[in-house]
Automatic annotation (TrEMBL):
UniProt keyword Signal, yes or no: yes
Region (Disordered): 167-187
Keyword check for Signal: yes
Native source species: Actinorugispora endophytica
Compositionally biased residues, Basic and acidic residues: 173-187
Name of this chain's protein: Copper(I)-binding protein
Keywords per UniProt: Signal
PANTHER family, per the entry: BLR7088 PROTEIN (PTHR36302), COPPER CHAPERONE PCU(A)C (PTHR36302:SF1)
């Protein structure tokens, strides 16, 4: 049930999206070439594996996107922002322990750094992409298109299936314009 989606910057993004429906992980033969090309953009060496979005209704207002972000290049890549279909606002979040000992999610300063030749895991209860101001119900079996922007200005896209999931019920540290008055919304 894992879905692997990869995308490359600008010109290659459309072709990559069209091919990912049947595709698997990036072929091992391609990874070394990308790792050797230190002059390319972060998006050119990006991959997303096992991506998924927690099902939510428009009334829920928010949900999370998860998966494994890969970087086949020889330099670190930093995701600084994101957009997603069906969400009016998207933030990069982390989960920390609040003063009361409970898990609290908040916007992650500086974004997500994917180490050179490595991965950065997005998972419930940890770093994740927060989809906010939902514009429609995100039902199991549908898909969400996610676009990431890197610190070098390049962008990459991937598609994540929506799945039912009962976990990831951290409190939200409000103040990011999420539209929830109590500051304790859950995703």
């Amino acid at each position: 049930m894992s879905t692997t989606k990869t995308a490359f910057a600008a010109m290659a993004a459309a072709a990559a999206i069209a091919l990912t429906g049947c595709g698997g992980p990036v072929a091992d033969a391609e990874a070394p070439a990308a790792a050797e090309d230190a002059t390319g953009t972060a998006a050119e060496s990006f991959s997303a594996e096992d991506a998924w979005v927690k099902a939510a209704t428009e009334d829920d207002g928010m949900t999370g996107a998860f998966g494994i972000l890969g970087n086949a290049s020889g330099t670190d890549a930093t995701v600084v922002s994101a957009t997603a279909s069906g969400a009016g606002m998207v933030e990069l979040h982390e989960v920390v322990t609040g003063d009361d000992g409970n898990s609290v999610m908040r916007e992650k300063e500086g974004g997500f750094t994917i180490p050179a030749g490595g991965t950065h895991v997005l998972e419930p209860g940890a770093d994740h992409i927060m989809l906010m101001a939902l514009e429609k119900d995100l039902e199991p079996g549908t898909e969400v298109a996610v676009a990431l922007e890197f610190s070098d200005g390049s962008t990459a896209e991937f598609t994540a299936p929506v799945k039912a999931y009962e976990g990831a019920n951290e409190n939200y540290d409000g103040g990011h314009g999420d539209g929830h008055d109590d500051g304790h919304a859950e995703h």
